[in-house]
Amino acid sequence: MNINYILFWLLLPYFILASSSSSSFCNHHDTSALLLFKNSFTLNTSLYYSFRYHYWWLDDSSFSSKTESWKNGTDCCEWEGVTCDTISGHVIGLDLSCSNLQGQLHPNSTIFSLRHLQQLNLAFNDFSGSSLSSAIGDLVNLMHLNLSLSGLIGDIPSTISHLSKLLSLDLSFNYDYNYQRMRVDPYTWKKLIQNATNLRELSFDGVDMSSIGESSLSLLTNLSSSLISLSLGDTKSQGNLSSDILSLPNLQILSLSGNEDLGG
Ligand SMILES: *[C@@H]1O[C@H](CO)[C@@H](O)[C@H](O)[C@H]1NC(C)=O
Ligand SMILES: *[C@@H]1O[C@H](CO)[C@@H](O)[C@H](O)[C@H]1NC(C)=O
Ligand SMILES: *[C@@H]1O[C@H](CO)[C@@H](O)[C@H](O)[C@H]1NC(C)=O
Ligand SMILES: *[C@@H]1O[C@H](CO)[C@@H](O)[C@H](O)[C@H]1NC(C)=O
Ligand SMILES: *[C@@H]1O[C@H](CO)[C@@H](O)[C@H](O)[C@H]1NC(C)=O
Ligand SMILES: *[C@@H]1O[C@H](CO)[C@@H](O)[C@H](O)[C@H]1NC(C)=O
Ligand SMILES: *[C@@H]1O[C@H](CO)[C@@H](O)[C@H](O)[C@H]1NC(C)=O
Question: Hey, whose CA ends up nearest to atom 8 of ligand 6?
Answer without folding.
Answer: 222
